Amino acid sequence: RRVAALPEGEVFNRNAASPDGSAVFVADYSSHDIRRVEVATGEVTTLVDSLDADEAAQFDGPAGIAISPDGSALFVADFGNYKIRRVEVATGAVTTIAGSGEVGDADGVGNAAEFTEPVGLAISADGSALFVADSCNHKIRRVEVATGE
Questions:
Q1: How far is the C-alpha of 13 from the C-alpha of 9, rounded, in Å?
Q2: Category of 127 on φ-ψ map: left (φ > 0), alpha (ψ -120 to 50) or beta
Q3: CA 61, CA 125: separation in Å to the nearest integer?
Q4: pLDDT tens digit string along 118-146?
């Protein structure tokens, strides 16, 4: 059955369900937003609106999304900014976990790491690590959630 209608003409690459199944979070690649869908009602809200966000919190083609085991945080592969981001579900606050914002292929902590078009990610069962599909580097990269390493 249909849960919700999303804006026409947009590209929705990935989604992640909350641990209790009450909400689905959508990476809206075309409009560079993160959306929340309430499963029971179909209501769609924008958790992060890149047009209204501070420059440091703007997405450029969010291409992958995962949710922490406790449902408090989303992790987003920010394709065009070459970063891995964290979004607080309660507030929509965005921080960068890893990625310099420059195209590259470097392991490192936080902004010392470099990606080239990260497109997807998965989170470990305990929530301590992200596994990033770094598409143009043809690698799966591991990023520690706590340190960005």
A1: 13
A2: left
A3: 26
A4: 999 999 999 999 999 999 999 999 999 99
